Amino acid sequence: MEKEQQAKNILAKYNQGHIIKILDKLNEEKKEELIDQIIEMDFEQIIDLYNKYKQDELLVSNKDIKNIKYIDKYGINESEREEYKRIGEKYIKEGKYAVVTMAGGQGTRLGHTGPKGTFKIDTVNGDKYLFEIIVETLKKAEKEYGVVIPWYIMTSKENNAQTVEFLKEKNYFSYPEDKIKIFMQNEIPMISDDGKLIINEKYRIKEASDGNGGIYKSMKENGILDDMESKNIEWIFIGGVDNILLKMVDPILVGATVKENNLVASKSVVKAYPEEKAGVFCKINNRPKVIEYSEMSKEMCEQRDENGELLYGEMNILSHMYNIKALYTLADKKMPYHKAHKKSDYMDENLKMIKVETPNAFKFEAFIFDGFEEFNEMTILRVKREEEFAPIKNKTGKDSPETAIELYNKMSI
Q: What is the pLDDT of residues 242-254, one digit of tens each?
């Protein structure tokens, strides 16, 4: 009774009286589970986020933004290229390099049941799972550099058990199990348009993954950074599970970053056209940043430099690299959150599930690229889209299995 009263006091304080009514109708087992969740939850954080972000986000101003310098991987001379390659290969061959795959999503948008990494595509070399393609890339690096690269996989509470089971069942696609570590990202509650936390069909407050920007904190809390440090790893590549052309081990990226004396780096491709809906690298208040298409005016999207190139045309492809010092720094920083308006079915006060047809709740996500603002400079390496960017996000059309497989097959022939 004491814990129940504590939970009810918290709910009353934060105007969540609907959950008190639900609590009173639950059996003892379900009630205890919900009470424990309530007591452990950071209500202050979610209510503050709701109050802060319920208004529309504003466009960035022309006066605050500048374009960012980059290195064109195919525009540098041969001697520079060889120098970058030599520097980078040294770190890789000495075992000072690791790869992290962000794989917390489900394949729902693809019509696939299960973790996105378990989605299978039909390539010119046969059927392959997304996780399998990543392993093949790591094995290729092992053959080239004579070292087995540690592989870390970030899952979510939603898909962790399925991911672990799948990889075990597939024997990790013959990658050494002792070189693989799996960890989970954190979650944050969803909240309705009118500031009410949502109860799901399992009689619990509905939570969603806190976005890829939560990776920094999750890596520290799960002992991943300490594990890397114990292995003398200095450079860490972080990318998503769904880009089947992702080049995770690139000595030129490492070498260029070391040469420029930076702690953070990313790859970019040139926007195909000004209105392409993608985030681009820039500088705001003299700090590196990625701004989303929705944050830019039409004029900014179309602005060009003296060479006729888009001034803000270096597109983010979720291909990032960090020195371990940078990851430790970011793990202790509070990442800003961004809101997304989503549809969310909910349980009403009479324990009835209500189906919704239109967005009715906010999901809050931290973005990995917001961490770049902690540094004065970062290295941007421009690469070719057709060689390194074939994401699978949609069931059909742009960034679908069809478009990605076409690019993958061209690179595989």
A: 999 999 999 999 9
Return the DSSP state at 1: -
CA dist., res. 82 & res. 80, Å (int): 5
> 130-145 and 78-93 helices cross at what angle (nearest 10)?
100
Rounded to whole angstroms, the Cα distance separating 155 from 100 reads 11
The model scores a pTM over 0.90: yes
Closest CA to 183 of 130, 238, 109, 242: 238
Listed by start position, the domains of the chain span 1-40, 41-412
Q: What's the token pair of residue 134?
A: 């990543």
Q: Are 198 and 346 in contact (CB under 8 A)?
A: yes
Q: Checking DSSP bridges between strand 287-291 and strand 235-240, what pairing results, if any?
A: unpaired
Beta strands in 156-294 (DSSP E): 180-184, 187-189, 191-192, 207-209, 235-240, 264-270, 280-284, 287-291
- C-alpha distances out from residue 9 to 29, 43, 44, 127, 208, Å: 20, 12, 14, 55, 24
Q: What is the pLDDT of residues 223-268, one digit of tens each?
A: 999 999 999 999 999 999 999 999 999 999 999 999 999 999 999 9
Question: Is the domain covering 41-412 a CATH 3.90.550.10 domain?
Answer: yes
Whole-number Cα distances in Å, 211 to 46, 154, 370, 371: 15, 11, 11, 13
